[in-house]
Amino acid sequence: MSSAPADPTAELPASVDEVYSFLGPSGTFTEAALAQVPEARGKHWRAVNNVGEALADVVAGRSVAAMIAIENSIEGGVSVAQDALATIPGLRIVGEYLVPVNFVLVARPGTTLADVHTVNAHPVAYAQCHQWLDAHLPAHGHLPASSNVAAAASLFEGSTADAAIAPPGIVDHHDVTVLAENIGDNPNAVTRFVLVSTSRSVPEPTGADKTSLIAELPDDRPGSLLDLLEQFSTRGINLSLIESRPIGDALGRYRFVIDADGHIHDERVADALLGLRRFSPSVIFLGSYPRADGVRVAFDQRYRDDVFTEARAWLETLVDDAGAGSASHG
Q: pTM for the full model?
């Protein structure tokens, strides 16, 4: 694995299939997620400043794929990533990866906890540590950072912050003093990352798959969301994520970010997508890919593939019989 360049504008290799973008600088949880991708090992990793830049790399062809955070177990969906996937055309999720998350509070050498009045932190990390901060630094102020590693780096770049929230491995990258360890509010916190590309190929089903999509409601009326959810419930499909995001063109207009258990090649999932497409004015298919946890999808056997294919074959016989009957009376 080559190290990510400190400067995102650093010269890139001639072959774009050697480049993967991630939220930098080196040492972030996003980099840890990218390290789980076999295809990315030994390739060039490009550090960027935010989700928009990472996805712009993919769309412009500067990178073959980008790793972005999409959900965490404390705060839920990452809205900036969800909105980007909803508004940037042509993107597909080709894999998901889980990274356990914990944090340390670091400062410049010589700083003590009593000296800390302002903390630099990525907003998501800050939200996951607020209980510890409120208990130990009740009067502190918060300066937002573009990443957890950038928060620590800023301490040596003229930041007015006295301390920063960072990953435990930050000591391998910067000469900081660790003021406190394990400051996350939940020791079991996990962030889910997705690898995004413009590839149109869909990974083969494994039986432990997830399908991601975004759908809009056709109108703001009682029962509209229920109609959307019934496209899945009537086909025995569990939703592991459903979050609303405002479309932004008017009050009461929402799109829904959905993760459904199963693969688009599964008959029940394909049939649900057809029903959703008839119902919704806009459906964005983001991809079907293996679940990071490898847990096989459990579902009612009434919705197994052969039930759908048998029903379709039965319908075809009815149509054929009706056609034969019409011919005999012609």
A: 0.82
